[in-house]
Design goal:
The chain is of the alpha+beta class. Helices cover 29% and strands 23% of the residues.
Length: 141
């Protein structure tokens, strides 16, 4: 049984890109670790690759993932990635690369989100601070 969207913590979409057409097993292991520890729940995942001839392959989470290096990944499939999301990724891919489009819930924040909603509050602003900005600020301090 899946939970309603009102019981979810913050949900985000990320695109991870790689050279070649197979995901390194260390990436699957790292993603599995954050899921297994309860920090995140993968809600949707689509793998894209563009071969050297420009031919695009798309693999959805309910298809076999062994050939691309993502077998055994735990996903609570909600089908949240839209065709528009994929169009953006497809349009930026170079030949000989691959990408994983992942929608995930920040599971660790679910209790906080529930408490905020129960208090008639809402998340008003969520900003992802670019890594370069964080590094620059830390170097300056």
């Amino acid at each position: 049984m899946t939970e309603s969207s009102s019981n979810l913590g913050p949900v985000e979409l990320v695109v991870l890109t790689f050279p070649g057409t197979r995901v390194d097993t260390t990436v699957r292991a790292a993603l599995s670790e954050v899921v297994d520890r309860g920090y995140a729940t993968v809600l949707d995942l689509i793998y894209l690759s563009k071969d050297t001839n420009g031919y695009l392959t798309e693999v959805e989470i309910d298809e076999p993932l062994d050939d691309i290096g993502l077998s055994g990944l735990s996903v609570d499939s909600r089908e949240l990635i839209s065709d528009e999301d994929l169009d953006v990724v497809r349009g930026t891919m170079r030949a000989g690369t691959s990408a994983i489009v992942v929608v995930y819930e920040q599971t660790w924040a679910r209790a906080l989100a529930d408490t905020v909603r129960s208090a008639d509050g809402e998340l008003t602003l969520h900003i992802q601070v670019p890594r370069e900005s964080v590094e620059a600020a830390l170097a300056a301090s």
